[in-house]
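Justification of resources, computational component.

The compute hours requested in this renewal are based largely on the per-chain cost of generating structure records like the one below. Each record pairs the submitted sequence with a full structure-token output. That output is archived, and it is also reused by downstream analysis tasks.
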Amino acid sequence: MKVAPNEEGLAQSGAAGALQELYDAYKPLVFSLAYRMLGSVMDAEDVVQETFLYINQQLQAGTDIRTPKAYLCKIATNKCIDKLRASSAKRETYVGPWLPEPLLTEASTPDGALSHKESLGTAYLLLLQQLSWVERAVFVLREVLQYEYDEIADIVGKSPANTRQIFHRAKKAISGQDAGGEAGEGTGRQASPPSSTTAQVVEQFVQALVSGNVQRLLSMMKQDAVLYSDGGGKVQAAVRPILGAERIIAFITGVLAKVPEGYRFSLEMVNGQLGITGYIHEEPYHVTTFHLKGEQIEAVYLVANPNKLRHLAGRGQT
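The structure output for this chain reads:
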């Protein structure tokens, strides 16, 4: 008998086939939830694997999973919280600004089947990091994945009324954050201009950078813009945010002047927006994304921590 991943329950026979269908149907959903919860591509992929391994054990044991979608999200949420607890001490001692791992978002990306690409933006992900673990889960499930409150309540182990309160508290907290804050202490805004606007600005920014047109670069940035550089103590990077358009341009041009031999860059879709990926001998060197206010750059996010770029290894090869 064919086992389909529906909301009426899974048959207790054909566990292998049931697992494959669940994996095919819900892997993008689990990855989407985990990445937004953790801000890490590699940890999100681990959560996907661990979640489906657990589901496989349940199916092999004959467990009747009546609501697979909600059940998967519950398992994934718990595994995310376990990872967040385990990494909390490392986050507190992290060297310099902490930024999410960049996610290249082509059509084949695990998140490609889902909407709300704006919630993949670096600024948005940093806002989520300001919420408690439960608030983050509730907010993502409701705001991004469009779950009903009673479904979320079952996933996070709260009452529907409490879940509703948690969501509104989280939304209020995010709405009150400002893009100019310290990375890891309230960075970014939820609202973003259309991706087409960002793409146009980024392309013009790169053209001005390549041609050395400093005045053009300055005109494209807000005077109080901020650059966050995440080297994680592994490579040389600014350990504090760089404030002001002139200082940001000086920093970027200084970085490019010191790149090793074999450097090249590519414009790629990163976290739902056009960004810049730099390669050294076809291995990832840094990834830069932008947050705009209107048609000007308000924040620049540069990830150079090699541990956060490992999942991109080999992508520069043609």
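Confidence is low (pLDDT under 50) at residues 1-9, 107-115, 178-190. The first helix runs from residue 15 to 38.
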